[in-house]
Structures are given as C-alpha cells and as structure tokens.
Amino acid sequence: MIGQSAQAPSAVVTIRPHRFSPNPATTTDNAFQGTDPTRDEVSLASDAFREATAVADVLRAHGVRVHMFEDETSDRPDAVFPNNWFSTHAGGRIALYPMYSPSRRTERRPDVVRHLVETYRVQEVVDYSPLELDGTFLEGTGAMVLDHVDRVAYAARSNRANPDALHRFCSQFGYEPVVFDAADGAGQAIYHTNVLMCIASDVALVGLDLITDPARRALVEGRLRASGRRVVALDEQQVRDFAGNAIEVRGRRGRLLVMSRRAAASLSPTQRRTIEKSCPIVDVDVPTIELAGGSVRCMIAGVHLAPREVGSRRSARAGAVHGDVGAPGSLASV
C-alpha cells in the first residue's frame, strides 16, 4: 500500500513553453539566471520545449498525474514556472499571487484555474494579485517553502517575498511564518526561497550557510529537525546548482524526490544516501530552462486538492462555461 503524505502531491500542473527565453526583466535580482551565446532564440525555445516535455514524461512514467498546459506566447518568458503564481491547498483552496515583475503578471491563467475547479473539489480561490497595486509581492511557492504537515511557511526576504503579504497568507491559510534573510557570497539576496530549500516528508535540503543571521539559521534548522526530518545542509555551490530546487511527489509506487540532473550530480554520496533512506531521487536534464534562473521545482505546481467524482465534474464544467472561474466555490480578492 502506498503511504499517503500531505507534503507530496500525487498530481501536478506544468506549463510547456513554445517560445521560451531567459527573461531580461528579472536579471537585476535573480543571480541564478544565465546566458548561452552559442544558441539562438529558436534553438533555446526548441530545447526548452523538449526539456519541459521530458519532465512531464518522467513524472507520468512514475504514476504522477500531470496536467500540462501549453504556452505559445512570446511575452511570457517565465511561463514555464507556474508555481510562482498559484498554489493549491487541502480543504479545497487555491491562492493566486502578486508578481514582482510586470512581465510576469500575465502568467496567471484563468483556464488553468478553471481546469482545477472542474477537476478537483475547490471551495475558494483567494486572489492576492491586487497587492501588486501597492507594490507588495509574494511569488507563491517560489517565495515560500511550505511545510504542509507542521503548517510552517519559510520565506527569505526579497523583492519577491514581502513579509506583510506572507503574514496575510499565513493568517488565512493557517501557516506559521518563519522569515529570515539569505544571501550569496557576494551579498546578493536569494531571490526565491525555493532555490535555497526543499521540504519533503522525511528530509529537508537547505542552504543553511546562506542564512545570514546565526540565530535565524539555528531557528530554521531547529524547526526542521523538530519536525522529525533529517536535514541535508547544502553549500553555496550546491544551491547554485539547484540542489535545493527539488520537489517530493507521490507516484504509483510511493514518494520520490524530483530534481534536475545538475542538482543531483552536485550531491555528495553521503547526502544522496540520506535522501534515499526516505525516497528515491529522480533527475531530469533541464539545462536550458535553468538559464532562466529556476529548475525542476519551479516548473512543478503541486495539486493538493481532492478529485471530483465524474458527476460533480460535469456540474462544475457547466458553471465554468458561463464564465464563473470560481465555480462552484468563490473568488475572493484580498
């Protein structure tokens, strides 16, 4: 029998980009972005399409349900990273998030939300995107790393993780916020918490040394250990190789930790053994998409919702056709 886990979703959403390119509008605060002058725009887009397809194929091969959407636009270069603009939660709730760069705000797609409403039991869609008008941003499970079991939201302060927005989310969704500062060796703030840490059911990968305040560093490590997880401390180079940008999912044979091939190659044998005491590591090669400053975890939005029965799915579809994106739940802007 496959063990259940509140931390590891058995279904995910991915976006397959047709015209991918690293986003020039986000380079100022994303030190993980890169360039490849040996490839033109066409080859970059073709390779990113192939890599996104491979991630979905690997997940499906392990029995994970994948809802893959296409993005054929040329004005959404980061569309491949859907976990930044929405998250789903047990009890039938979806959150939509305020995005720091105006170039990313059109990534929020009603058709994706509508599909989730039609396929899963959704009671409420909470829309935080109006906070953009106040210059307040919280880029989903990029800005936050959520412990769904102990109900803790870890967040490194940055342009993309405003503590006030975080506290508002935590108050409404029932998480305790743990906020800290994190920076690389050059002193630049880590732009997204999910490149720094990954929380799985029994293990947590975290770049502890990049948390600048020793007291906060000890607090984060202590909270993770108190939750019963083994802590795998990542060094700065491993964080740059996206070892922290992993996600645990649940397939037909149990849980697995999915990360990029580059990330997996950066792990030491001891770290790998520690992780694999909990679940196997599955890696996928995504070097083109990593030029955009994110990796496999950024490409995957977990679905923590209960599926609908067939009959109720038809009813929800009928409501959505009439333009009620939140049907049969409600859409609340905050």
TrEMBL record:
Pfam families: DDAH_eukar. Gene3D superfamilies: L-arginine/glycine Amidinotransferase, Chain A. Residues 23-36 have a biased composition (Polar residues). Residues 17-37 are annotated as: Disordered. SUPFAM superfamilies: Pentein. This is Amidinotransferase. The lineage of its organism: Bacteria, Bacillati, Actinomycetota, Actinomycetes, Micrococcales.
